[in-house]
């Protein structure tokens, strides 16, 4: 079963007027994992699809939604998957890829059948991003050991973190989709600080590894007109091209970042000084 939503893009001048409820309604994705369902949110921000696959009692097949007007889901798209649960498997046109916790899989345009399932009675949670694609690149699994790893931040500023670049152009070829995972060290709670924007691509964040009863305040909006959304474990948020994307938690956590747009240079960003945020 597929549960799908459609989200429009928003002008920053309009977002300034949103109530808390409206802000959450337009940008927060609170229920990524639905039992025995594939949850998909089609965003008009670079047409990125954000979703989750939760095969609890049966295998789940990725099928095209009405929004795609396609014969099969990846007819004109590429797909990135990161498993944030127990061991699972993804079968792509008959080839089986086992994914452990925090392992990723890139699936290129043109793959016709994608099936998600459990392995050895473990419970996988497959977080997915999909973007339009103009070329077919090979399907490839990427483990944490194969990722490009960057250590950033300082304990002094509560932002010491490990960035795992999993599905990025320095690791494998994609059309425009880029995905990775940032792990906050114990005692650190700030992510993506100093903040930045990048008008050449949008981004989506998915927060997990957050303790029960804890929360993350995700910051968005133009640097001079910021807003915040409180989030809990296994929730995602859309970040427009004009918006910062940063957060602070009441404990450490992990988050997955996914990007789509015309520029694939990870370092291409417009930085904002911390003491200039408003």
Structural key phrases:
7-stranded mixed β-sheet, 7-stranded antiparallel β-sheet, 2 helices, 24 strands
Give a quick precis of the structure.
The chain is mostly beta strands and 278 residues long. It is 4% helix and 44% strand.
Strand order of the largest sheet: 1-3-4-11-6-9-12
CATH class: Mainly Beta
Largest β sheet strand count, sense and barrel closure: 7 strands, mixed
Query: Helix count, per DSSP?
Result: 2
Radius of gyration: 18 Å
Please trace the helix and strand order, writing H or E for each element.
Answer: EHHEEEEEEEEEEEEEEEEEEEEEEE
State the end-to-end distance.
Answer: 43 Å
Shape: globular
Structural class call reads mainly beta
Q: Classify the beta-strand content into a percent band.
A: 35-45%
What is the CATH third-level topology name? Jelly Rolls
According to CATH, the homologous superfamily is Jelly Rolls
Number of strands: 24
Q: Which architecture name does CATH use?
A: Sandwich
Task: List low-pLDDT spans.
Answer: none
Mean pLDDT: 96
The number of domains: 1
- Helix content class: under 10%
Family: Belongs to the KduI family.
Binding site for Zn(2+): 196, 198, 203, 245
Catalytic activity: 5-dehydro-4-deoxy-D-glucuronate = 3-deoxy-D-glycero-2,5-hexodiulosonate
Cofactor: Zn(2+)
């Amino acid at each position: 079963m597929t549960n799908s939503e459609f989200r429009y893009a928003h002008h920053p001048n309009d977002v300034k007027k949103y109530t808390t409820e409206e802000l959450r309604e337009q940008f927060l994705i609170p229920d990524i994992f639905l039992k025995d369902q594939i949850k998909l949110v089609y965003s008009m921000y670079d047409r990125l699809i954000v979703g989750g696959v939760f095969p609890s009692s049966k295998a789940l097949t990725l099928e095209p939604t009405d929004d795609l007007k396609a014969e099969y889901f990846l007819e004109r798209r590429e797909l990135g998957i990161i498993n944030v649960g127990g061991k699972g498997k993804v079968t792509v046109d008959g080839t089986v890829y086992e994914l452990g916790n925090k392992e990723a899989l890139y699936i290129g345009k043109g793959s016709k059948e994608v099936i998600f399932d459990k392995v050895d009675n473990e419970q996988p949670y497959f977080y997915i991003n999909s973007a339009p694609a103009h070329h077919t690149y090979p399907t490839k699994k990427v483990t944490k050991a194969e990722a490009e790893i960057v250590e950033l931040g300082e304990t002094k500023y509560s932002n010491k973190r490990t960035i795992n670049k999993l599905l990025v152009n320095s690791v494998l070829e994609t059309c425009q989709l880029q995905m990775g995972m940032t792990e906050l060290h114990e005692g650190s709670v700030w992510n993506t600080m100093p903040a930045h924007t990048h008008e050449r691509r949008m981004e989506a964040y998915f927060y997990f590894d957050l303790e029960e009863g804890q929360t993350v305040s995700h910051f968005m909006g133009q640097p001079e007109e910021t807003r915040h959304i409180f989030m809990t474990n296994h929730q995602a948020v859309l970040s427009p091209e004009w918006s910062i994307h940063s957060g602070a938690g009441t404990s450490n956590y992990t988050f997955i970042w996914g990007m789509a747009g015309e520029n694939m240079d990870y370092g291409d960003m417009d930085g904002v000084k911390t003491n200039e945020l408003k």
